[in-house]
UniProtKB/TrEMBL annotation:
The lineage of its organism: Bacteria, Pseudomonadati, Bacteroidota, Flavobacteriia, Flavobacteriales. The keyword Transcription regulation applies. Keywords: Sigma factor, Transcription, Transcription regulation. This is RNA polymerase sigma-70 factor (ECF subfamily). It comes from the Bacteria. Belongs to the sigma-70 factor family. ECF subfamily. Residues 118-163 form the RNA polymerase sigma factor 70 region 4 type domain. Residues 21-88 form the RNA polymerase sigma-70 region domain. It comes from Arenibacter algicola.
Length: 185
């Protein structure tokens, strides 16, 4: 049996003719598609799907021509379909990832705003001298000794007031470890 005879027999539903063509062209088609994919397993999958399509469209075959060109075209088109499908999946995954990041940023912004509001409340609840000292140190960056000189108090009093402030902040944010990292780095 040759290729043309096999095509004629296959058009009539002869499975052995299909098997003959499969055995004749399978390895060559896998090698051909592997030059594009660089992955033998993926190439085998593509070629197997090409042969399924070849069988399904057997009525379209020209009985006067070898099916070689047709098989190569089907296999190549299956490869292109695989690439397009992979790009679609990659784009979809990229969109999902981007959306997840945006959601995370929105969550983080909301959480930050909540922390700021909570910190303002805590600062307002501190005794006036304690609040003044923590603002001078943590917001304006003034050193303990300079605060003591500026306010006419001892460095030990500054340290004591800072300890009071930090104790209240620590109690309010005991579950919020991210804030601890930011405040005390």
């Amino acid at each position: 049996m040759n290729d043309i005879e096999a095509v004629a027999a296959m058009k009539k539903g002869d499975r052995s003719a299909f098997r003959y063509l499969f055995n004749t062209f399978y390895d060559r088609l896998v090698a051909y598609i592997t030059t594009y994919t660089h992955d033998k397993i993926q190439s085998e999958d593509i070629v197997q799907h090409a042969f399924i399509r070849f069988w399904e469209e057997k009525s379209k075959l020209d009985e006067t021509k070898s099916p070689k060109g047709y098989l190569y075209t089907i296999a190549y088109n299956r490869y292109i379909d695989t690439i397009k499908r992979a790009k679609k999946q990659e784009k979809l995954l990229s969109q999902i990832w981007e959306r997840a990041l945006l959601d995370r940023i929105e969550e983080d912004s909301e959480a930050l705003e909540n922390r700021i509001q909570k910190m303002k409340q805590i600062m307002e609840s501190l005794p006036p001298k304690c609040r003044e000292i923590i603002i001078l140190n943590k917001i304006q960056g003034v050193k303990y000794k300079d605060i003591a000189d500026q306010l006419g108090i001892s460095v030990k009093t500054v340290e004591s007031q800072m300890r009071i402030a930090f104790t209240k902040i620590r109690e309010a944010f005991k579950e919020d470890y991210a804030l601890w990292f930011l405040l005390f780095k």
